[in-house]
Amino acid sequence: MVKALNINVSACKEVTMAGYVHGYAARESLRLDDQARTLYQLLYSDLCYPTGSRVLEAGCGTGAQTLFLAGCHPEVDFVSIDIEAGSLGRARAATRRAGLANVAFQQADILHLPFAPASFDHVFVCFVLEHLADPQAALGSLKGVLRPGGSITVIEGDHGSFYCHPESEAARRCVRCLVEIQASLGGDALIGRRLYPLLVEAQYGDVTVTPKMVYVDDSRPQWVAGFSRNTFIAMVRGVETKALAMGLIDEVTWQRGMADLMRATQADGTFCYTFFAAKAHRC
Questions:
Q1: How far is CA 152 from CA 66, 147, 155, 195, 208, in A?
Q2: What CA–CA distance (Å, rounded) separates 1 from 279?
Q3: Within a domain: residue 1?
Q4: 13, 25, 94, 167: which has the highest count of C-beta atoms within 10 A?
Q5: 5 inside domain
């Protein structure tokens, strides 16, 4: 039985990327906190690491996933890495406040891991590959520190899977701006659909991908607030300045599109988005 953790923390992923599309403002930390609280049961609750395992969390950011993983597996040793020292400091502080003693934090680059081959029984990567210019290289690097037979879990979203009711072309254009800006920074906001081929090409075995759909309507008010408004719409809103400056959209269309996205959070609206959870093993 997975234990719910009542912890306030953000989970900014800052790893070997050309540019983090969402930025590092305080509002982004709040958005990521809502995202972690809302999604952990859907995305991570089926994880079950055996007692005594050694797990690498690659790209821990400020530690939202770390708190869940370590809190639900007290007899497992976690090594959580990130390239950003400031994020690691916040993650360390969060785990201390939570009373978790089974996590070691280390500053490291996913493409240049400072670990011996086959050092870990399992690897966990969440919302990281979408920001990397070369996710294939990252998966190869992670495979090198995974023991033969060990598992990897990779979780990513796919903005192309979004739809809502009522919907408008203006709303679609706003979401597309986020996709295009992330691509201009070297990332891929549509990477969820690529997880299977990426893992196969990296020569992992037993690759399986499970879609994890978020469906929101007025009967699920916690999801209307936690996901539709405070996670997804807030994420799109965060690229407004860049989208207008790059000429991807005009201000009138942007404001109309954002209003239409918010319209889908009202009593007669619905909202859908799909994440993808991949699991595989090192052969």
A1: 16, 10, 10, 12, 11
A2: 20
A3: no
A4: 13
A5: no
